[in-house]
Description:
Helix content: over 70%
Number of helices: 9
Largest sheet: 2 strands, antiparallel
Shape: globular
CATH topology: Arp2/3 complex 21 kDa subunit ARPC3
Oligomer: single chain
Structural class: mainly alpha
Strand content: 5-15%
Distance between the termini: 30 Å
Amino acid sequence: MMIWLTMYGNIRYAQMLTRTATFTALIAIGGWISITIPFLPLVPFTLQTLFILLAAVVMKRYAVLPVTLYILLGICNLPVFHNGTAGIGVLLGPTGGYIIGFIPAALIAGILLEKEVKFIGIIAIAAASITIYALGTAWLSVSTGIPFVAAAMIGVIPFIPGDMIKGIAALVIGKRIS
């Protein structure tokens, strides 16, 4: 009852709540969708980052809300991570740094996208991707004991082409939605 009273007549709050729920669901669904590119057959791409970047384009700095909620749902053992995995163990595993990197990436991209500067969309998407790569690679290196450069070769280089496509798609789709 209290939520309804505070939402009644407040369009911005209702939009924020709706967008948060929608993007949380899309990010979770994106973890279930794996795409394999023919010239990189061993590297499956999920659509989680597409929806995180799309949330940043649409929600700006508030994109941190659905991303954080997504991670909290996964920590609470809801099967929202890649291929239905869940739990704190996923975050402590080799890919946990990439998942945790989603939060600052969404915030950085969202804040940058609030500015009216030429090419800011490309800069924001690149900054978000670099943030995810840096945190993910650092944690991959620490959790597996492999050198940072080797972790980058495994956890960054093969994903750059797909992430570039997802970044462009997020910008194009997000501009149409907004």
